[in-house]
Amino acid sequence: MNYAISLADIQAAARRIKGYVHRTPIMTCQTLDALAGRHLVFKPENLQKVGAFKARGAFNAVLSIKETSPETLTRGVITHSSGNHAQALALAARDSGCPANIIMPSNAPSVKKAAVRGYGATVHECEPTLEAREATADKVEKATGGVFIHPYNNPLIMAGQGTVALEMLEQAEEAGTPLDAVLIPVGGGGLLSGCTVAVKSLRPGVKVFAAEPKGADDTYTSLKSGEWVPSVKPDTVADGLLTSTGDLTFPIIRDKIDDIFVVDEEEIIRATKLVWERMKLVVEPSAAVTLAVALFNADFKRAAEGCKTVGIVFTGGNVDFERAVALFKTLEVPQ
Q1: Residue 1 pLDDT
Q2: What is the set of active-site residues?
Q3: What residues contact 203, with CB distance under 8 A and at least 6 apart?
Q4: pLDDT for residue 199 is more than 90
Q5: How far apart are CA 116 and CA 83, in angstroms?
């Protein structure tokens, strides 16, 4: 089967975005190793530009268009997003000298709208529905002639996100702790599909496991049922993982990952709090879903038996601090 991206696309993305995004480090934590019963190697993309891995895909998309069609880029780029992709595309556009038009729902936090505007983008507010987002994006695209860049279901975005795995594999080997498996969260699937292609192309013996909240388990349901199932009224503290996979990301995930595991809300909050306390890293709950699986999911522990070293991706650290503290306090209340 022909997939949307190949290893060559990811390697090209790595060359293209070098110098534009951070090569985030890898980190370890003996306390979390002891709790997990294996060695964990963390890739903290919360230390990435805009505080999330999304910068990789956004810069790859914008810079690729600049290489192939600079005239098109003068008309700008467009997307709809209320999260990290909005900020990432706005920054990539600013650094490439082109306009950015970002469609955001009216109920998106004002701090996120301010951040997007701070990068020089124009924010177009719409009703908080997918239909309204798409209609507004179509209207802006027709008015400006700009290029629409989907948050995850886009080959350039997927290839850019796959550079996370390229770096993590290389860094772990340089540190003398080659990976036996990786754990990656899944929402729309841009990160998971890109990293899966990288890992399975370079190190086919390394297992790829996906992590998902029970409150937004459409990918888990799809893979276990054998049919794609969309996300319907997802409800989870991991608000970066609410979207369904796309027709470009899902085939790679379906065919190439080794397994997928889910965790509940308390497990996600507990894992997030552990990272803050033990690693001194500010990560958002969506990022900690991977660690929650490694620590609390019995099925994962059986599937990963024999995997001495597991790479774990922390996707981002854009946190509402008051909300995070409130979530942590729920762990102190007897159930």
Answers
A1: 80
A2: 54, 82
A3: 169, 179
A4: yes
A5: 10
| Lowest-confidence pick of 100-114, 155-169, 215-229, 233-247 | 100-114
pLDDT at residue 308, as a whole number? 98
- The percent of residues above 90 in pLDDT, for the chain, comes to 87
CA distance 307 to 181: 6
Report the distance separating Cα 263 and Cα 292, nearest Å.
Answer: 7
Residue type, 304: A
Whole-number Å distance between alpha carbons of 197 and 3 = 9
User: Which pLDDT does position 334 carry in this prediction?
Assistant: 59
**What are all long-range contacts of 268-273, with beta carbons under 8 Å and residues at least 24 apart?**
268/213, 268/236, 268/237, 268/238, 268/292, 269/237, 269/327, 269/328, 269/330, 269/331, 270/295, 270/296, 270/331, 271/295, 271/296, 272/324, 272/327, 272/328, 273/328, 273/331
CA distance 258 to 86: 31
Which residues have C-beta within 8 Å of that of residue 74, sequence separation ≥ 6?
98
Domains of the chain by range and CATH?
A: 7-53+155-330 (3.40.50.1100), 76-145 (3.40.50.1100)
CA 69 to chain CA mean position, Å: 27
- Look at the chain and count its residues: 335
